[in-house]
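Following up on my earlier message about 6-O-phosphono-beta-D-fructofuranose. Here are the inputs again, as you asked, copied directly from the submission form:
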Amino acid sequence: MSRDAAWTAFDRTAAEAGKTRIVDQFAADPDRLARMSVQAAGLYLDLSKQSWTKAAFDACLDLARACDVEGRRNALFAGEAVNLTEGRAVLHPALRATAGADFQALGEPVSAEVDAVRAEMKAYAEAVRSGAEAGATGKSFKAIVHVGIGGSDLGPRVVWDALRPLEPTIDLRFVANIDPRDMAEALTGLDPETTLVVVVSKTFTTQETLANAEAAKAWLAASLPAEGMTKHFIGVTAAPERAAAFGCGRTFAFRDWVGGRYSLWSAVSLSCAIALGWEVFEAMLAGAAQMDDHFVEAPLETNAPVLLALAQVFNVDGLNRPARTVAPYAHALRRLPSFLQQLEMESNGKRVHRDGTPVTRQTCPVVFGEPGTNGQHAFFQQIHQGPQVVPAEFVIVARTHEDAPESPLWSNALAQGQALMLGKTTEAARAEGLAQGLSEEEATRLAPHRTFTGDRPSTAIVMERVTPGALGALIALYEHKTFVEGVIWDINSFDQWGVELGKVLAKAILQDVQAGGPSPDLDPSTAALMTRLMG
Ligand code: F6P
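Thanks, got it. Here's what our run produced:
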């Protein structure tokens, strides 16, 4: 089937699906749950509360076939230049493969180097933890300050917050914002003699990170002997020469075939590997590798990343739902929504196809979220009763805490999915009001306000516990899902030109400020804001 024919069938079945209520489809199709749920790398996904009918589900799979998802997936794993605007391979799976794998980037073997860097990281992490690698004055490190932004920050933050012990032997703090307040908060209470600063930047040119790294260096230099400084100042980058020139005593490298937002499997997570322990980091890699195997081996109709991607494409392009909320029902996963914002919106927020022609359909939706149940008490009102339908994704953990095996948390997630799907009719709302003792008139007046249209889609992703392996599998699931969407939309998911213009203009604005005020060619609004802010 051609792409065009597949999109036509997709549109036709989407229009039909829009007329059938989700809940009624379970009766119409007794195999619905079995067909639309899947297990992968220890995760269980239930996509049966999505709006698709069987015909629409099949049309989505046909679309995936017509877009050659399998061929493009194989090209990614084969290290071809899938990032074609930058002529780069995209090989984050190589970073989590078991030792001795044989990945190639643009025909060059890379796995031996991956293994070597991993061995270096392991030795260093263990030496820091044991105290063998100590600070300038011989004291063991008690804290790490991780400096980085975007992909050099969000992944390690998710990992640390998800897996950190309640009382870590080595504390880990993150600094991303160029606002000095961020660094000041991170450094509060820390002793330079026992603090390791890890500066993470793929390019080692990012303004915010370099400014923060300078501040951290100055903080260390104010207390430490100059000759010992380098023990406290470590770089992680794909540009090791820049890190060395900046004064990093030691540098852990990764390659340009690792995209920033796909980089947490590399030395970018060195701080986590130290603070959590090497076994934890390795177990996370193993979980992700399991998801890689599933993505490569499972047929499309039972392939978890593929089905998750198709649900999103169906909502966005089939039913015009340009937003999605993600609610992890586990405090440990509270950072997941911000991580996904970068992963999905920086990857797939694109306006042209791979050949440069403008897209004619929607691409990435707005992704936002909060942990459950916090979000329920904030923006879920709109999800239940707002006129726009916002698909929800619940990441549900059976046991969030060893001491609370029967957490009430997941029951809330189930209730939300049910409420969204079932809703409540005006008649039921009125009857409820009467049963609560309201007068006829009052029950009738309030009924519309208490009505839920229902028929709102959600997905459930379930894990037993937030273990390192489950976390690795979950993040890899989202990475591959993002890739599959990019294949279907025929866009390059691995560049991010959209962030460049703002960076260039920020420099020009700074120059104006340093020159004393707005340049004459500045637009009136920006010029007035500048004048006001300069005081
Ligand atoms: O500006 C966007 C971006 O380039 C992201 O893609 C990246 O993750 C982030 O900045 C940080 O970049 P770097 O790791 O090079 O400092």
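One observation from looking it over: Residues 110-276 form a domain with the Rossmann fold fold (CATH 3.40.50.10490). Hope that helps, and feel free to reply on this thread.
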